[in-house]
Fold this protein.
Amino acid sequence: MMYAVGVDLGGTKTAAGIVSGDGEVLFSDTIPTLNRSGGEAILDATAHLVAGLVRRASDAGITVGCVGVGSAGVIDAARGVVVSATDAISGWAGTALTAGLAARLGLPASSVRAVNDVHAHALGEAWTGAAAGTASSLLVAFGTGVGGSFVLGGAPVLGHRHAGGHVGHFASPYAYDGGTPLPCVCGRAGHVEAIASGPAILESYVRRRGQASVPDTRAVFGLAAAGDATAADAIAVAAAAAGQAVGGLANILDPEVVLVSGGLADAGTRWWTPMETALRAELLPALRGIPVRQAALGNAAAMVGAARLVLDSPVARPAASSASGCGTAQTSQRI
């Protein structure tokens, strides 16, 4: 059996786990991401987390020699470098992610690989989750932001400039206040994320003259459940915007299955029903029977997908490297 470490490195927390060759997370641990301390401090903390898990694996008689990372930011998967990142993680852009981790762990550079965290999420679902056994899948996640990934033939489509999957940043007819496009976190306006993300629901509720003292999106859902029509409308519009966006993407990509994930997908039928209704209304006739599923792996998805990067997944690898991952070399390396 092959084993790898899968790391899910996000803006607030970093989770890692020992993942077997059949996709089972044997054990895991989580630390806060040092998101105001810079890239080197984050790499130090992540390496310490990984090394601790590998020691636990060794105590259980398991040899681990490869690490896969799903990270926030735009990731150049071939070079293992963070191309750009939001201010959610200060000093993350430009970090040599895979080389930095490999050096700290005493591993060859080819034993550590990385992609964006949503690509890792989608890869995990395609391997052992709700899209297991399919030839292609589109995953779109709605939570603090909106992100996505198209997995084709067992590998996420990363894009020529490493920015594939930024599905929150195209125009939505819902993302307007009167005739004015709503500002988006990317610096543009009128995008899907500006109306369909979790924070956008709270902003929409307040904009509709809801209670300004409401603290967060969860509270908006609570108000809607208690009969607040303004809260219910804000959620319904965001869900419709989400569904229309996913339906349009499905028309373009024609995946075998569509997966929807994230905190909003977990919020229940108040969001899911109008989302799916809008999604199916957008579909071309040939796609009307497409399966639309909720992602299945929860918080483990990105860890599983990240491990898959180094467990003989056909994800993009450095052109100069002849390494083929843990599938052929994992027993020769120790952390």
Notes: The CA atoms of residues 305 and 322 lie 22 Å apart.
